[in-house]
Each structure stands twice: as structure tokens, then as C-alpha cells.
Write a structure and sequence with these properties.
Helix content is about 20%, strand content about 30%. By secondary structure, the protein is α/β, with parallel strands linked by helices. It has one domain: 3-Layer(aba) Sandwich (Rossmann fold), CATH 3.40.50.880. The strands form three sheets. A seven-stranded mixed β-sheet has the order 2-1-3-4-12-11-10. The chain has a three-stranded mixed β-sheet with strand order 5-6-9. Strand 1, helix 1 and strand 2 (about 30-35) form a beta-alpha-beta unit. The longest helix is centred in the first third of the chain and has 10 residues, at about 50-60. The structure holds glutamine. Glutamine (GLN) binds next to helix 4.
Length: about 200
Amino acid sequence: MTRQRRVGVLALQGAFALHAEALHEVGADPVEVRARDDMSGLDALVLPGGESTTIGHLLRTSGLWESLRTSVAAGLPLLGTCAGMIIAAREIVAPAPNDREPLGAIGISAHRNAFGRQVESFEADIEIDGLAGGPFHAVFIRAPVIEAWESDVSVLAWQNERAVMARQGSVLVCAFHPELTPDRRIHEMFVRMVPGEETT
Ligand code: GLN
């Protein structure tokens, strides 16, 4: 038998509800995280899309920032999507004012709103390294790109020659919203990265 992974979904702002649904569908036990106590006993955490400046602000006012930093330093597996990728990054290249340090969970530099104002939102079929079953239909909403990355970061997908998905250790990030389509392969990929399987 396998133990269900308890996967937190940061639920301060943005697209968290559909992540919880997707996690449930791939066999994990999703938990909405709004306060420090919700972090206890998590096997992994999803940082959803939304508005990274707002989420960053709420992380600090809710008192979650410090426990998140501690958990990340201790190796908590993370999935960061869109704004969540920006928050997880080591560095933010921001066209807008950005006075907040990111989490530094993955050695990437994230460029906010990098597809430009004219292309606020678009969808594209992209090839993802290591994902069997053909291209993934990716929904980009005022999406960031991965502008630079450390040598041990693997870039897993590209859109218009720009890096849009990456992994370093147990941290996975994508610039698009995998929860908005019924394809669960990215959530499955993430949950499989999370240690915690026990056989009885
Ligand atoms: N543009 C947003 C930001 O900078 C991210 C958009 C999204 O998460 N869909 O936070």
C-alpha cells in the first residue's frame, strides 16, 4: 500500500482551488495553506499562479514567509506555477516595481510578464522533457519566462525559444497554468517526485 502524499496548496490568492482538485485526482491529499499551522506535516507544497506581488505581500503579513523559507531550506518539494514560479525563483527580473526578495528555492531568474502586454494570454502545445504521451496544452496568462538558470537546473520546456519550465532537485516550476486544463500529467510528475511512498 502507498501512503497518500499530503500536498499543501498555498491558498492566499490566485488559482489554488483547481490545483487542489488536480492533486486529488492524481492520488494526493491536498491541504489548503493559509497560516503557519497548515504547513505542519506537509510532504510538498504548490505555489499557484495569481499575482506574485500580492501573494508575496500576503505571505509576509500572514506570517507564512519564515516557515516557508525554513521548509524550503529543509528540502520541501515545491511546484511553482506562473506567479508561483516567480516567488520560488532565486531572482526576479521585474518590469514592475519589485522590492521583495523571492524565496530562492530554485536557481533561476524569472522575468515577469515577459511575453509582453500585447500577448497577455495565449495557449500553446509544448513538448515537455520526460513527459510521455505527446505535447502538453499550456495556458499562459501574463506569464513569466525563465531568463537565466544555474548549471544544475534542467530546462524542461520552451515556448518561442524561451524557457518556460524547469526542475532543480525537488523543485519544479512552470510559467503556465497546468491546473487549467484537464491534463494531469504535470501534477502526476510532481507527486511522483515527492518522497513518501511506504510499502506495508
Ligand atoms: N504576471 C503575474 C505576476 O507577475 C503572474 C501571472 C499568473 O500567475 N498568471 O505575478
